[in-house]
Amino acid sequence: MIDRRFLLISDFAELKKEGERLKVIKGSHVSTIPIRYIEAIVVMGRISFTGEAINLALRSNVPVFFMSKFGKPKGLLIPQLLTSKYNARLKQYEIFKKNRPAVAGRIILEKISNIEKNFNIELNSLKSQIKKAETLESIMGVEGIASRAMFEKFKENIKGSRIEFNGRNYYPPADRTNALLSLAYTFTYFLALPLIIFMGYDPYISFLHSKRGKHLSFCSDIVEPVRPLVTKKLETPIITEVFSKKDFIKENNGFYLKKESLPKFLNWFESIKEDVIISLKSSILLVEEIIR
User: How far is 33 from 275, CA to CA, in rounded Å?
Assistant: First the structure.
């Protein structure tokens, strides 16, 4: 069985067709990948994609997702054969109407387990509470306690770093570390979209989060169990001072990464992308087991 994977390509790359292979050119680096090894293609930022390369992808039933360099979806090309996965969506709608808390609880149970694994803390009492919870409100209450425990450990682990962290906050991020966390979570959230669509689900029908405006609420559901991994991965560039205070700007009482410092972030995110994609897939499969 061929091990197929999502191909994530960021800014200033050129994609061409070379036989039955996709040729990726980025600066002086050139690589070719057999199209049969690619499950889907996600391109971020300014990418040159030849018509022949697009035709190769579509002919091989490989969807192409176009995103901005900040991770915001711009559009997608999906081969017609992939649109027939309606059974997954029907089951998703059915469980949404009948038993949201069952799926929501399982999502948060997995998140708590991943907090334990990534941060080496014991949260058995919270897992017991989740198993007994019957409403979304009670599930979210336990999730809040688990998240606070994770960020306390995260704060302890990066103690002494030059960019401060005073606890998780956002809208706007009150310090530089929170700016990085928000950006990392946003990229993970948007990366969940092509996976969800590819696996046949509706990104707007969720079990844990509520739909508001253009919010891709099922993406938020899927990201919850992945947050501990992304949070843990961010410790290294903070501790090793990949990011410094000069990389941020303060606007409207919040901190944000400067545009000229974005390549640093993209390089870091690219280094963890495979782990993130694997974790996102596991999160979707977890939900799939329940609603199947």
Answer: 20
